[in-house]
Amino acid sequence: MATISIVHFSGSGHTTKMAEAVVQGAASVPGVTAQLVTINGDDINKGRYKNDDVFKQLDASDAIIFGSPTYMGGPAAQFKAFADASAERWFRGGWRDKVSAGFTVSGSPSGDKLSTLHYFFTLAMQHGMIWVGMAESPYNDKGINRLGSFSGAMGQAGQEPTDVAPNAADKHTGELLGQRVATVALKLKR
Amino acid sequence: MATISIVHFSGSGHTTKMAEAVVQGAASVPGVTAQLVTINGDDINKGRYKNDDVFKQLDASDAIIFGSPTYMGGPAAQFKAFADASAERWFRGGWRDKVSAGFTVSGSPSGDKLSTLHYFFTLAMQHGMIWVGMAESPYNDKGINRLGSFSGAMGQAGQEPTDVAPNAADKHTGELLGQRVATVALKLKR
Amino acid sequence: MATISIVHFSGSGHTTKMAEAVVQGAASVPGVTAQLVTINGDDINKGRYKNDDVFKQLDASDAIIFGSPTYMGGPAAQFKAFADASAERWFRGGWRDKVSAGFTVSGSPSGDKLSTLHYFFTLAMQHGMIWVGMAESPYNDKGINRLGSFSGAMGQAGQEPTDVAPNAADKHTGELLGQRVATVALKLKR
Amino acid sequence: MATISIVHFSGSGHTTKMAEAVVQGAASVPGVTAQLVTINGDDINKGRYKNDDVFKQLDASDAIIFGSPTYMGGPAAQFKAFADASAERWFRGGWRDKVSAGFTVSGSPSGDKLSTLHYFFTLAMQHGMIWVGMAESPYNDKGINRLGSFSGAMGQAGQEPTDVAPNAADKHTGELLGQRVATVALKLKR
Fold first, then answer.
1. Among residues 74-93 of chain C, which lie with CB inside 8 Å of chain A?
2. What is the CATH number of the domain that holds B129?
3. Chain B within 8 Å of A146 (Cβ-Cβ)?
């Protein structure tokens, strides 16, 4: 049995749609429990995030997948506040050897989303986690990984309603990321 | 005449020391006014930064230099909240063609500080700004740019008192960054 | 008068098409001479690039714009061999204060092109150059900066003929980068 | 049983010293075979790398650890030529799910080494590999990870003889990276 947490912030709901797809992909792997964890702006006071329940959930997980929109070329400040609060775990190596991965959503096809994924990776490395990316070729007829991202999953959404964007292909891409992380986490736990 | 704003967040005061050195360097250039702008956690509500006076100061500046400690592999959440709030300027190209630069402080010699500088650069590019880095060779006997950083200035400080770290060499490095940015901003304004 | 060199490697010709557009944009600015400089694999011996004429052209330029396809998540090895050979200029600060910028081409919309642009930036910073990015919003009806890149210009091309890809919008994007670099270089030279 | 390949380029021998330490660390794990693979400039013709034996060794490995000096802000061109040649494996997903990691050496404490490690990571993600970083806190009295690097191992060496630099602490750091990669590779292979 392995537990996968998908911890994300979403401003307009598009990233939550992507997060739900990642959860679904992880949960589809037999022996895996996947849970959606939401970073809430209400838990941020003067720029500092505090929510002990969220951290307890993550501490008890075998894999943590990070998700955020790309705002101004990086993860949302709300996500960063959560990341800064994880420093306590950093000091004692609390997340060492957990599996990690990431996904992000923004309006244009490329749009500095790689910068956000690189930040998630850098955060995971600070924690001594093991990183799993998006191992799907963009060359297929289903739109899987259509944007061509390898470090993690990318979805595209601007001002569209959340039932339209990210589109089915992007959500399918997210699903495959969740599935892959779950498979690796299970293998490492055996 | 050119106006240079050094906008920074500091958690423990070390980054403020570095910021003051950058201000001093910029102010040393004839024809330049340099001002220290501080991002205050009190201006962040649920992860969103709001301070119209700060943005008015920056709108009226010819160059903006970004500063933050490196927390968990990136800029502090408080800085990121400020960056996210700059999206309003992004929409209307308000900072286009301003000169930009950055500096960061953390405990170890390397320590993912480059990730923070790369984020500052990415933010500046989103705004259509012009980036000026650290053009000093680390091979000198004064400790200038002793850590070997080119994208911006790096200072080192952990738990030491703020009158000890960042050390004189790091502050001198910051001064030279301020000076260089001021010189370029003046040239572009002629 | 300002001289702008667009130095690029191209494997299949797509990046040359993009480079020509950048040249055209730079040359459209009154008072600017723009020249296409090509990195040739024949000048690489055991992984080391040597071509004194190329370096003399660049030494005499006010701005250098770097271009390469994105291969395996970064600039082509041929470009990197050229970059490594520029170390001689690095030692004596030969390119300090020149204006710099970059563009890249690859098959998918995002596809780690930002990693290549970030490398060009890092190279420019090593040299103490001043970086100028892509200051065009992707939200327009002409396809300008349609991929959403700010650190430099991105073009998309896979196996298509070079008269088809990169497409007109991408080449127009490259043109605007050339124009902007030329404008900044002229201003700094006054 | 797991096979770990440490594939590296070295210009002046310092990176080979680091590579040997990584090999030693990997080989110290029971059930693991570790081999040093060297990228030779002689195998590069007009910027293109070709050596079928090297690729056969890597194809047969459970983990591949990348190593290169940091030249002009990124991996050496010789390493990049090798990386470009790995595109054939990329097309058919030949390295998918292998474990990956990286290390680099340069003259100053920080010095854009993170840019090289980020490139190694980006390359590994293109291949669908699983990334393992440096999970050692820099806060210890043995100099382990003294430079403060998490994405991979960093060593420092300039013009010193190779028996002096990288120093014992940096080599010990490399050893721990090799050990960690070997442990993860074994677990995933069970």
1. none
2. 3.40.50.360
3. no
